[in-house]
Design goal:
The protein is α+β, with helices and mostly antiparallel strands. The protein contains 11 helices and 9 strands.
């Protein structure tokens, strides 16, 4: 598995440091973001964009616990970011996002003293932790909880909704996940979602089936959080109402090469299952 052309030895060393530090502080965690996505893509020999970031969601009980993790990593040669209070830099220059959740957020937002970005929203992180990860054995020898592709799509919908002016890549990543999902998860789809193939719509595409399955998987995670469940439905509904006027949908069109109507059909399939 070639993860972003980062040498296995360099990535293994970083994972060793993070895993040991989390265990020493009795902190649970899971991997999210681009490397998590690419791990799933690599299992299906799918091509993926390169990234230089490693993202972990860390379950933290207090700001003091979070600072202790950062301090322990600093002792191992890591440094603080000048632009983001939630980022540390590895000794070989790799950016590592440590995104806390679990017991310290207020109204789903976490704020810290620091430089640059000092507040983040973590809506959905707990739901993904509860029902949206799988244990994966990595080629570095580590076994980590990895956010599933539907979980990654969920977090990207939320991140886009939080800051649409900055998160234009999220729409591209979501449609990319939808378009590759059938190839990557065909066994799961055939075994658990065979009813979707019995649709009266004879022209339903595999990508629309994939979108529906992702909608079902997201609903499993968030159905007990009514506020979040309604929020995700609202995000998709608003973009569908805008259609070609939606920057979100236009970014999906540019990524996939499909027209607005085909993109809308996938989003509608997902929305129907969320409802």
């Amino acid at each position: 598995m070639n993860l972003e052309n980062i040498k296995d030895g360099e990535l293994k060393e970083i994972f060793d440091d993070l895993e040991n530090t989390f265990k020493e502080n009795n902190i649970d965690f899971y991997m999210i973001g681009a490397i998590a996505r690419n791990i799933w893509y690599a299992k299906g020999d799918e091509k993926f964009r390169t990234t230089k970031d490693v993202d972990f969601a860390v379950m933290i009980g207090s700001k003091e616990d979070y600072q202790k993790v950062r301090d322990d990593l600093m002792k191992k040669g890591y440094t603080e970011s000048r632009t983001n209070a939630f980022v540390i830099i590895s000794p070989n220059g790799l950016q590592i996002d440590l995104l806390p959740f679990g017991g310290i957020e207020i109204d789903e937002e976490i704020k810290f003293e620091g430089k640059g970005l000092t507040s983040i929203k973590v809506n959905g992180f707990q739901e993904v932790y509860n029902l949206g990860t799988e244990n994966v054995e990595l080629e570095t020898g580590h076994q980590f909880k990895i956010a599933t592709l539907p979980s990654i799509a969920l977090l990207k919908f939320i991140a886009y909704d939080d800051r649409p002016e900055l998160r234009f890549k999220d729409a591209r990543d979501i449609i990319n996940i939808i378009d590759h999902y059938f190839n990557l998860q065909s066994d799961l789809i055939y075994e658990n979602h065979a009813d979707l193939f019995e649709s009266d719509d004879q022209e339903i595409t595999l990508e629309e089936i994939s979108a529906a399955v992702i909608g079902r998987e997201i609903k499993k995670m968030i159905k007990d959080n009514e506020k979040l469940h309604l929020r995700v439905q609202r995000i998709i509904s608003e973009e569908l109402q805008l259609m070609e006027k939606s920057a979100f949908i236009r970014n999906m069109v540019n990524e996939s090469g499909k027209n607005v109507e085909k993109i809308a059909a996938k989003l509608e399939a997902m929305l129907n299952e969320l409802k």
